[in-house]
Amino acid sequence: MAYSMTGYGRGEKIFDTRRYSVEIKSVNSRYCDINLRLPRIFNFADSKVRKVVSDSLLRGKVDVFINYEDTNSEGTEIIINTGLARAYSDAVSKIAAASGREDDLTASRLSTYQDVITVRQTKVDEDRLYEELISAVEEAIRGMKEMRKAEGDNLASDILSKVSSLETLRSEIAEYSPEVVADYRQRLSDRIDVLLTDEKREFYDESRLAAEVAVFADKCCIDEEMKRLISHFDQARKILASDGSIGKKMDFLIQEINREINTTGSKANDIEITNRVLKMKNLVEEMREQVQNLV
């Protein structure tokens, strides 16, 4: 079963006064690379959340955004740094006196200055918060996997279509390849007739011609490559139908398919086979790009 590495998922959960919102998006990556952004109150859960995400998504560059709101003030302590507020106020007064402007700094504005007011959670039930958070994370992961599966199914379907096209071209090459030797034999015989006189032609008998043709046939024989391609195409179908991570397996298999096609092209010594080899190489390159997006 194919899954794409590209996707998006969102999860939202509300428990009493607590609201959790999780967004996950991912793109291609060789490994599972997780960028996690979460409120400071959940620092204790950082590694646990990463493990849940990596175990579920396996591969991809994954961005996880977590927002948390609690409308209940219980367990929240407001801390006022009066010394810092006084220092800010004195600094503003000095600036006003030095510039000849009015000191219009209000308490409301002063409270917005950095670190004058800080919020601290005094009571945190980490187990409860983690369970609630993970339920939202898992909901986002489910949405992500649904999108990944839909795109993965489309990719797999297109790759299978290209495998069928490769099989057709392979069959055409296998069917045509014996004609290459026959054509070579005829061309060689015709060439001998042109170059040798009747007297000399009798010294170049059929056994000599047959030996030359046999050497050529051995050099351009592609039977093994054709057999291995059949096996590779069957394996591609099995991998695309299997569960788990298949991207790396398919990437390796496509390298092997490309190797057999290249060898066929180098041995062929025939324009008809070369034309089909070029078509096969184009299909394989398209497959290689698509496989890069599979988990």
Count of helical segments?
9
Question: How do the strands of the widest beta sheet line up side by side?
Answer: 1-2-4-3
Q: What is the CATH C level class of the largest domain, in words?
A: Mainly Alpha
Low-confidence stretches: none
Strand content: 15-25%
- Overall pLDDT, averaged? 87
Report the major sheet. Answer: 4 strands, mixed
Number of strands: 6
The CATH architecture term of the largest domain is Up-down Bundle
Structural class: alpha+beta
Order of helices and strands: EEEHEEHHEHHHHHH
CATH topology description of the largest domain:
Butyryl-CoA Dehydrogenase, subunit A, domain 3
The percent range for helix content is: 55-70%
Whole-Å distance between the termini? Answer: 10 Å
Radius of gyration: 35 Å
Folded structure, characterized:
The strands form 2 sheets. This protein has a 4-stranded mixed β-sheet. The model has no long low-confidence stretch (mean pLDDT 87). It is elongated, with a radius of gyration of 35 Å. 63% of the residues lie in helices and 16% in strands. Helix 1 (46-57) links the parallel strand 3 and strand 4 (60-70). It folds into 3 domains: 7-73 and 127-147, Imidazole glycerol phosphate dehydratase, domain 1 (Ribosomal Protein S5, domain 2), CATH 3.30.230.40; 76-121, no CATH class; 150-291, Butyryl-CoA Dehydrogenase, subunit A, domain 3 (Up-down Bundle). The protein contains 9 helices and 6 strands; from the N terminus they run βββαββααβαααααα. The chain has 295 residues and is of the alpha+beta class. It has helices spanning 46-57, 82-99, 107-111, 126-195, 198-201, 206-219, 223-241, 247-268, 271-291; strands spanning 7-15, 18-27, 32-37, 60-70, 76-80, 117-121. The N and C termini lie close together (10 Å).
